[in-house]
Amino acid sequence: MERRVAERLRGTLGPLGLEAHAFKVGWYNAVLQPAFHLPYPDDTLAFVILSTPSMFDKALKPFVNKERLKIIRDPVDQCVSHHLSRVKEKFPDQRVDVMFDYEMLPSRKPKFLAQTAAHVAGAAYYYQRKDVKLDPWGKKKIFGVCIHPKYGGWFAIRGLLLFPDIEVPFLEQPAPVDCVSTEEKRIELLELFNFHWQDGRYRDIIEVKERYSEEQKAYFATPPAERFRLLGLSQ
Predict the structure, then answer these.
(1) Which has the closest alpha carbon to 40: 163, 126, 139, 184?
(2) What is the Cα–Cα distance from 127 to 85, expressed in whole angstroms?
(3) What Gene Ontology terms for biological process does this UniProt record contain (predicted)?
(4) What is the structure's pLDDT at 68?
(5) CA separation, residue 130 to residues 134, 139, 206 (Å)
(6) What is the DSSP string of 170-233?
(7) Which is deepest, 61, 133, 139, 196, by most CB within 10 Å?
(8) Cβ neighbours of residue 167 under 8 Å, at least 6 residues apart?
């Protein structure tokens, strides 16, 4: 069942520059405190959705051109929301719940922890302070970051698709590719991400197969309120 769902998702989302990676809710809940658990049985089938560098040209620009007058909030969020909501139409006999990376609970906690979901699904490796044996940062707060084996840091985690009526007790968990495998490189990655994230150097911590275009870099480097102008939209 998981394979059929995955093939249909990839056929729908792949041409848009989006990736879908399957996981069981139990894998995610097992590594988090109860306050962050997804409220589904452990064997529930879920997918984490990533946007790759090609999403900008394959999905965002066509969406903006077509829906120009209907864009009233962040264009990328609205584009991803549009396409993931349409995924439901591909599964008329299934309940499909969608969670987006920007959604918050009433407690102001995020609905899901995106990087943890990507890691347990094997989509991208979530490098954290605990992955460094000789920690050089003392009492500094150090945030972790996901690295994709193909795109490095040139990708984003956009949402979850959950299938509450499908249980996959025998789904095997894939390990994420440990592509930043040396202690020195992990320290460099976390240093770049935490203290120099604006320049984007952390994204190239590995040799990447594809990165954002210059147009896309300019778009994401622009303050959100001014991005409408870059896409030819009025605010």
Answers:
(1) 163
(2) 31
(3) cobalamin metabolic process
(4) 78
(5) 10, 14, 20
(6) TPPPPPPP--S-SHHHHHHHHHHHHHSGGGTGGGGSS--S----HHHHHHHHS-HHHHHHHTT-
(7) 61
(8) 41, 43, 44, 45
Per-residue DSSP letter, 105:
-
Distances (CA, A) of 66 to 53, 62, 71, 213, 224: 21, 6, 10, 22, 21
Please state the pTM of the whole predicted model: 0.94
CA distances for 5 relative to 70, 170, 187, angstroms: 30, 15, 38
As a whole number of angstroms, the distance between CA 146 and CA 194 comes to 13
Please count the structural domains in the chain.
Answer: 1
Tokens 């996981």 — which residue?
A: 23
Which pLDDT value is given to residue 156?
98
10-residue mean pLDDT profile of the chain (235 residues): values are 92 97 98 95 98 97 86 88 92 94 90 97 98 94 98 98 97 97 97 95 97 93 83 65
In this prediction, residue 232 carries a pLDDT of 74
Q: Write out the residue range of the structural domain in which residue 65 sits.
A: 1-231
